[in-house]
Design a protein that fits this description.
3 domains, about 650 residues, xylan alpha-1,2-glucuronosidase activity, eight-stranded parallel barrel, Chitobiase, domain 2, six-stranded mixed sheet, single chain, 17 helices, polysaccharide degradation, hydrolase, TIM Barrel, binds alpha-D-glucopyranuronic acid, alpha/beta, Alpha-d-glucuronidase, C-terminal Domain
């Protein structure tokens, strides 16, 4: 299958700047990473200026100079760009820093940032910037919305030119780690830690290393039983411990630069230490000890909850689960364990409060997990640019008592998380021609990487950078596409589940409405709507979840009058006539936002249509088709939600619109 170049198109920029810089490049460095940096420069200059840059063996009078320096402020991955005496100098402490510098330079040219007086220093503010692919060995993708896997075909690992282009995309935005297989490790994927797959994994590791990307693998916690034939996977059992030590030794003999493993344990049917009466730290530490001699890391997910709960039992709150299991283990994890915590307490809904473990774990390494695969946010059919949402999360204050107390401080290592950790995203790519199905969904892929590198970039800056590199250079295109992206999260929120209640999606598939679909099932995601009201009581009178935050957040959420509207139904059960802070009643707000959401999508389609003659027809029509499906989806949500709550509440829409 053929594929496109996403934001690495390098469109012609003729006549814009002094092309003379891009004729010669000089560096003393050798090796695979430098070769890749030079190859990128050649490709880009060829496409942008019609002539490829040449490597020369002396400092040119005009040109690019890549050199290693020794500057503490640049750390491992930072770089400096400077234009002086006819040279564009790219300086870094490491070759990977130089590669990142080259990508920055090319991005600035593609975005036509003024080159004169160029002088900048960039250092990533998070250490680990990671993608998690949920690709299965049979080529399918769990929650994949853009074709099948390009990592796996017929139970084999594929390493080809597309894999290289994937690595280039990651490096170009500074993503430095990736997990290629699904966290639900089943079938032959368990065998990635055996001879069967070492040869192809070696090729992959070698390729990724040359782009500064650490390969991680998802691990089956019960591999010692499934591969090793042991009777148990008890983390305190000597034979289990010995098996893993042997296994990790073998793995690292073959793949010495492997980053480590990601583990989903005791969750949604996956095996884990609970089976043996042990806790999550026992399980994680057992693996961490086995991998420590090789500097490997165990990334242990906190998405642990009882997915078999009885919906009639109102004492269980899934939202509390991760906190209840992990808070008391703070300090119990070894140094080479990193906990990976979903951004919110439920599961990647369009809106959730942040997970209260952030700010509470003070002695444990941890990173945040977000999802750019739009499982619950329109599945890459509906447009939903998630960067504004991630920005809100990063900017949230935890009130943990330290001076820098936002989540981004924590992910940067400025508070709580003293080692300085990072962020991971469930990836949204597949083998479709344009990588992400909907062309506009690539803005989330790009944007995640950029935000992972620099929490201070704005959603708009990121959107604009991406647009310049993706679409033809026209003011109107830049303006319209960025307005579309920036309104899209809000629009999606309007026509789907209201006021932070979440879910109400078609069970299993998670696209389209089914209001009671999960209400009477085992998954623990309720809305509790009846004739009188709606919402889950998570105050002290209910599940007590609101108290898990530090004050003043705990008080703000606890009190129905101060709880922000957008999260009201997540925290409170209220009547349909309850007055929101925006002065509307809950029911009227539901009607209004749903009608508005549909109108927004209609407007988005008109905006997109206006670009018909400014965009390549293939891209234009691909996106247009998605917008039409989005409109159907929005109408269906609006129709079902409004009818459902009209019939439940028997309260009329004060604007008299058609509700069934
Ligand atoms: C969601 C998703 C699953 C996934 C799980 C996880 O529940 O629907 O497909 O396995 O998250 O994050 O592990």
């Amino acid at each position: 299958m053929s594929w496109e170049q996403a934001w690495l198109k390098y469109q012609a920029v003729k006549g814009y700047l002094d092309e003379a810089y891009f004729k010669e490049v000089y560096t003393l460095e050798e090796g695979k990473i430098i070769e890749n940096a030079l190859a990128e420069l050649r490709l880009a200059t060829n496409k942008m200026f019609g002539a490829a840059i040449e490597r020369v063996n002396h400092l040119p009078t005009k040109g690019i100079h890549l050199s290693l320096v020794s500057k503490e402020c640049l750390a491992k991955e930072g770089f400096q760009l400077e234009e002086k005496n006819g040279l564009i100098a790219i300086m870094a402490n490491t070759q990977i820093g130089l590669l990142y510098g080259v990508y920055e330079l090319l991005r600035r040219v593609a975005c036509k940032n003024k080159m004169a007086l160029l002088s900048l220093t960039r250092v990533p503010d998070k250490e680990l910037r990671m993608l998690n692919h949920w690709d299965n060995i049979d080529g399918s993708i769990e929650r994949g919305y853009s074709g099948d896997s390009f990592f796996f075909e017929n139970k084999q690992i594929v390493v080809n030119e597309r894999t290289r282009d994937y690595a280039r995309l990651l490096a170009s935005v500074g993503i430095n780690a990736t997990v290629i297989n699904n966290v639900n490790v089943k079938q032959e994927a368990t065998e990635f830690i055996t001879n069967t797959y070492f040869e192809s994994l070696k090729k992959l590791v070698e390729l990724f290393d040359s782009y500064g990307i650490k390969l991680f693998l998802s691990l089956n916690y019960a591999a010692c039983m499934e591969l090793g034939g042991l009777k148990s996977a008890d983390p305190l059992d000597e034979t289990v411990i010995a098996w893993w030590h042997e296994r990790m030794k073998l793995v690292y003999q073959e793949l010495p630069t492997l980053g480590g493993f990601l583990v989903k344990a005791d969750s949604e049917g996956r095996p884990g230490p609970f089976t043996y009466g042990r806790n999550q730290a026992d399980g994680a530490n057992m693996l961490a000890k086995a991998i420590a001699p090789y500097n490997g890391i165990i990334i242990w997910r906190c998405f642990v909850y009882n997915c078999q709960q009885d919906w009639r039992d109102r004492t269980i709150d899934r939202a509390r689960a991760a906190y209840d299991y992990f808070y008391e283990l703070d300090g119990a994890f070894l140094d080479n364990v990193i906990l990976q915590i979903k951004n919110g307490p439920l599961d990647f809904q369009v809106r959730e409060p942040f997970m209260p473990l952030f700010g509470k774990l003070k002695k444990t390494n941890h990173i945040m997990e977000v999802q750019i695969a739009q499982e619950y946010t329109g599945q890459q059919i509906d447009l939903c640019y998630l960067i504004p949402w991630f920005k809100e999360l990063l900017d949230s204050r935890t009130y943990c008592g330290e001076e820098n107390d936002t989540i981004k401080d924590l992910l940067k290592g400025k508070c709580c998380n003293h080692f300085g950790r990072g962020i991971a995203a469930v990836a949204n790519t597949g083998n479709s021609e344009n990588w992400t199905g909907n062309d506009l969904a690539a803005a989330n892929f790009y944007g995640f990487g950029r935000l992972a590198w620099d929490s201070e970039l704005t959603s708009e800056e990121i959107a604009k950078e991406w647009i310049c590199q993706t679409f033809p250079d026209e003011e109107e295109v830049l303006d319209t596409v960025s307005r579309l992206l920036l309104m899209s999260w809000n629009t999606y929120e309007k026509y789907t589940a209201p006021l932070g209640i979440g879910f109400m999606v078609t069970p299993h598939y998670h696209y389209g409405p089914n209001i009671d679909g999960y209400e009477y099932s085992r998954w623990g995601t309720y809305h509790r709507a009846d004739h009188f009201g709606i919402g889950v009581d998570r105050t002290k009178k209910g599940t007590g979840y609101a108290s898990l935050y530090y004050p003043p957040l705990s008080q703000m959420y606890e009190n129905v009058d101060t709880c922000p509207d957008e999260l009201l139904l997540f925290f409170h059960h209220v009547s349909y006539n309850h007055i929101l802070q925006n002065k509307n009643t809950v029911i009227q707000h539901i009607y209004d936002t749903h009608f508005e959401g549909v109108k927004d999508v209609e407007r988005m389609i008109q905006m997109w249509k206006g670009l018909e003659h400014k965009l390549p027809s293939k891209e234009f029509h691909r996106v247009e088709a998605c917008f039409h499906k989005q409109l159907d989806n929005a109408k269906e949500w609006c129709d079902q939600i409004n009818s459902y709550f009209y019939r439940k509440s028997a309260i009329n829409d004060k604007r008299g619109r058609k509700i069934y």
